[in-house]
Every structure is written in structure tokens, then in C-alpha cells.
Amino acid sequence: MECFVLRRGLTVREITLRDFRSYERLELELEGGLVLVAGPNGAGKTNLVEAVHVGTQAFSPRTRADAQLIRFGCDGARVALRAERRGGNAAVEVTIIRGESKRARLNGAPLTATDELRSELPTLVFTPDRLVVIKGGPAVRRAYVDRTLTRLLPTRANLPRTYGEALGQRNACLRKIGLGFSSKEALAPWNEQVATLGSSLQAARVRSIELLSPRFADVGEALGLPDCKLEYSAEPLTLESLERRLARDLERGTTSAGPHLDEVVVLAKGRELRSFGSQGEQRTAVLALLLAEAELLTERDTGAPLLLLDDVLSELDAGRREALIGRLRGLGQTIVTATSDSALPARADQVIFVSEGTARAA
């Protein structure tokens, strides 16, 4: 069986951990395009994948409580990694100390905001928790599409944040007017900003979904989930629509129209997966979304993102595992976890065995 051809993109070569989750100390070199992390349940496979995510994105895919990343009985944790990417090498260090702000350094220089790593080191992750993208409420899917558009449409990456800031200002102004501390005239500039930015954000979401949907359908078909589709349900936001709702907005103190209330619908076989999809279909849909985005990003100048696939194989039959491997061959480095080193239907470039907080390369 052939090894994976490593595409140009983000490739992690070495990771060092100290007092991170189940790992007291760990130094590990990574090789090749497909890295399989194998070991029994509870051995620390997910912790290792989580550490790579923290080292490239500066946050955990499982929790926003940084203190939970620190090994029990310790005061801090450190993740350091060395990676290759288009434009040169990257050396990253993320330090977490109880009671202090998280710190990150890239090539020796401190980052003013840890989220700067996200644009520098593109990483996509699948975990069982990601089923919330399908099973959760509309806000989760809106957030997912907004994260996707920041990568697919980088010139519009600030739209979700700037719209949210303008929306917050308009809501604050509505409450002041309701309390008699301001006049309706004070709303005019915020109405204009919310309408303009909201309309732009809706257009960016539509464009992002237009880019993602065909590839989503293609990957879903390959993984045994036909007729996958994304739909954006939204009422166009205009200055007039805000003005029509002014009385209601003043009564409630919140803005009752805009992209913060829109819905993204995920379908397969003509059925909405949130309400009518099985657990297996929902899981496959999340994986298909991730692979669709990875394929789109791989075709761009930024190169292939790093893929982290945690416990992705447990509910895939032999045919779907073969299909997954087929899609991964055209991408960059992938780190996948499994309970057995024979779980993949292809030879991994490297197998790492994990046991009770230790890891070693085969």
C-alpha cells in the first residue's frame, strides 16, 4: 500500500508538552502525511490531538476553560511545536498559567492576541463534540459558517466581529431610549451601520455556502450520505426593515432582525439532519463539512490545512473508511486517532502508540 504524498501546507514536525492534561513531559517527532495515534480508551490519544490544536490555534476544541488543560496538581502547562508551512518554518509556544492570561509566541515573538495563530497556522478538527454543529441550535451553525467564511473569504473575515459590535451598540441605544436616557434620533447612525454590515455579512455567508455546498455534496456522496446540501434561511436586512420593527425593538431592548437570527439548514436525502438524521448521518455530515472545507483550502495559495481527526473511525464501516482515506490522499498532514494500529485501511506514514500518558513512535 502506498504512503501518503504530503501536499504543501501546514505540517507539524515536533511537539513538546509539559504538564498538559495527562502528559507530564513529552517530546515527540511527527513524520509524514498520515499519522495514526493508537491506544486504548483513556490512554491520552485525545489529549495529544488537543495539544496539537492548542499549539496551532491557541485554544482547545473541547473547552474554553484553559485551567482544565493543566495537569492535576500543577500550576501551569506548556505546548511547544515546530511546524513547516508555506513561507517558511514556524516555532510556536503556548503557555497557560493558573490565574493568568494565556500567552503565545510565534518564532520567538510574543503575540498580542492568541487568536493571531488561527490565521497563521490553519487547522481543522473533528471530534465527537462537533456533532453540535448539526444537533445544536441555530447559533452554533451561524458560528460555524462565520468561522468558515473567515478562512474561505479572508477579505471579509472581520464582518462577523464588526457586525456584532455594531449590533451591541444599537441594542444598548435601544435600552437607553426605553429608559428615557436618550432619544430616537441617537439610533440613526447605529441603524445605518447595522443595516450595512448585516447585509454584507449575509452576502458573505451566502457566498461561503455557495463555495462549500458542492464540495459538501461530493464528499457526502463518497462517504455514503447522498444529496447533502446547505441552505441559508434569512430575511434580507435593510434600513427599512429595521425601521419597521422599531416599536418592537424599543419594547424589548433588542434588535429583532438581522444575521444574528438567521438559520443555516443542513440536509441530506431531502431531510433536515438536525431533526430527522440518525447519529451516524449527523456524524458523517460533520466529517463531510470538514473535508469539503479542507479540500477548498488546499486548492488555494495558503496550502493544505492540518487535519485532526479524533475518534472519527469508530462509527464508519469498512467502505466508508476506504472512502475517507481516498479523500485524505489529496490533502495535507492528517493526525487521526484509533484504538488499534490496524484501524486504517491503508498504511500510515507513522504510528504513535499512546499508553497512560506516554507516547512513542513505532
Word description of this protein:
- The chain has 362 residues and is an alpha/beta fold.
- It has two domains: 1-122 and 304-362, P-loop containing nucleotide triphosphate hydrolases (Rossmann fold); 129-301, RecF/RecN/SMC, N-terminal domain (Glutathione S-transferase Yfyf (Class Pi), Chain A, domain 2, Up-down Bundle).
- It has eleven helices and 15 strands.
- The strands form three sheets. Strands 2-1-4-5-6-7 form a six-stranded antiparallel sheet, covered by helices on one side.
- A hairpin with a 2-residue loop joins strand 10 and strand 11.
- Helix 5 packs across helix 6.
- The two termini are 18 Å apart.
- The model has no long low-confidence stretch (mean pLDDT 94).
Q: Short description, anyone?
A:
This protein is of the alpha/beta class and about 350 residues long.
What descriptors fit this protein?
single chain; 362 residues; alpha/beta; six-stranded mixed β-sheet; 39% helix
Indicate the CATH architecture of the largest domain. 3-Layer(aba) Sandwich
The end-to-end span amounts to 18 Å
Query: What's the Cα radius of gyration?
Result: 22 Å
Unreliable residue runs = none
Average pLDDT across residues? 94
- Class inferred from helices and paired strands: alpha/beta
CATH topology call of the largest domain: Rossmann fold
Whole-number count of domains: 2
Q: Give a short account of the largest sheet.
A: 6 strands, antiparallel
Percentage of residues in helical conformation: 25-40%
Shape: globular
Percentage of residues in strands: 15-25%
